Amino acid sequence: MKKLLVYLKGYEKETVLAPLFKMLEALFELFVPLVMAAVIDTGIARGDRDYIVRMCLLLIALGIIGLVCSITAQFFAARAATGFSTRLRHALFSHIQGLSYTEMDTVGTSTLITRMTSDINQVQSGVNLVLRLFLRSPFIVFGAMIMAFTVDTKAAWIFVVTIPLLSIVVFGIMLWTMPLYKRVQAALDSVLRLTRENLSGVRVIRAFNKEKEEQAHFQEQNEKLTGLQKFVGRISGLMNPITYVIVNGAIVVLLYTGALRVDGGVLTQGAVVALVNYMSQILVELVKLANLIITVTKAIACGNRIQGVFEVENSLRPGAYTGQENQIHSVEFDRVGLTYAGASNESLTDISFRAVTGETVGVIGGTGSGKTSLVNLIPRFYDATRGAVLYDGKDVKEYDPQALRKKIGIVPQKAVLFAGTIADNLRWGKPDATEEEMWEALTIAQAKEFVEKKEGKLSAVVAQGGKNLSGGQRQRLTIARALIRRPEVLILDDSASALDFATDAALRRAIAGMKERPITFIVSQRTSSILHADRIVVLDDGEIAGIGTHEQLLSCCPVYQEIYDSQFRDHKEGK
């Protein structure tokens, strides 16, 4: 948590002025019981109305000055806390964006979302309250004790005994609850993860009629979280009644002692009232301090969780090489092996082949055979754990990741579009793309026809995730987004699954006819999509089962023959 305080840099003035004005407010508040004592002992005892009016005006002035100081402190504390959380959120988001797929898989999306939202909000509240109350409450507590000594030394020893007892209760409960709040936040992660899964997979859940099972699962996790929160709440809830018992007991002793000393002529009635007021101030401030400590405890737990994300290092070590301008480019896999973090077996084993500019490489295999894992090694989404992936003869690990990815156009399995316009989404591929370049990319991607029919054409609105478009339209726009940058390597990762055969064939012909002639990798489960590839790589359980043209594989590769027969059996039987 301490390391996060660096994000308060730039708000030094606010972090000093906020507690300073709170201390001023507290100082004026400490004078109030003395003024009240003077009103009772002098004004009321003597029947001096003018003195009473003057003292009442003084009380109003103290109240107004205290209010102004309090509002000023609130302003500076809120400004510092909000600025701190803004900077922290930006830094955390930037750090997450810099993590590789391996770290993202390990940490988990739901955990990162919790850190970005709930945890940072909790830390912001903690910083705000610390700036306002962390110095004010102890100042009032010890200030009231000191002021009590100025009123009556013997009665003030009651304060000396009461304050340590209260401190033991407050800090004891704080130390007890701190680890429990960490468990609460972990349970919240589980609920958020389950919620995210249910929302993203709502169609699948309904398709398989699993609503009741998921509701029961959610209720179970929610009840677990609720149980933890209730348990921590019960412990935290002990703080207020115990502090009230101690303080009110002290007030009883104080009144008894004060009554005896007033009867003996040692103390005045106003002095007893002042002592009781000081004890009441201590009670109020310790209740505030107790609530502050609960909030700070949560904030520290959340801050440590945020710091845990910052301490996750990117396993992908960036190189410095940016490449060079060549007419002919190549991608080569040299005895490549890949083992995912936490996995016991390799997902890819001894992959070796080479592709050059203008070639189309088809990648096919059963579900889980490693097709996506293979193409993810080219842009360094993951690094090979054995062997080397070479681009233009140089290991991709030596490349600067950003420079390498600028040379590559990628269309992932899941077509992801962002809220905005069609033009906005295309500019993800090339920020300075002209309208002519956009239409050219849309034409190659077979998307021009439906975009022209949209109201506004390139300015047509795209909903978040492209939910106002069909699956085929989303896929074609993501393909256009990859093509607009004129990549040296084009990766189509099962990106035509929602297209009909005619559109798929037209798309492949258009890509083959591009003047830039990129190295094209087509990952597909449909043999029709890769029939005319220059080379087809057949994967089976992470290993190469065969490499060659369609005709060659049909004659010598049993895995490819099985895939082909399963998809074209009806056609062959019809003949």
Q: What is this entry, summarized?
A:
This protein has 575 residues and is of the alpha/beta class.
What can you tell me about this protein's structure?
The chain has 575 residues and is of the alpha/beta class. The chain has 2 domains: 2-310, Up-down Bundle (ABC transporter transmembrane region fold), CATH 1.20.1560.10; 330-574, Rossmann fold. 63% of the residues lie in helices and 11% in strands. It has 19 helices and 12 strands. The strands form 3 sheets. The chain has a 6-stranded mixed beta sheet with strand order 6-9-10-3-11-12. The protein has a 4-stranded antiparallel beta sheet with strand order 2-1-4-5, with no helix packed on it. The chain has a two-stranded antiparallel sheet with strand order 7-8. α1 (12-46) runs antiparallel to α2 (49-97), α1 (12-46) packs parallel to α5 (136-151) and α6 runs antiparallel to α9 (239-263). The longest helix is centred in the N-terminal third of the chain and has 49 residues, at 49-97.
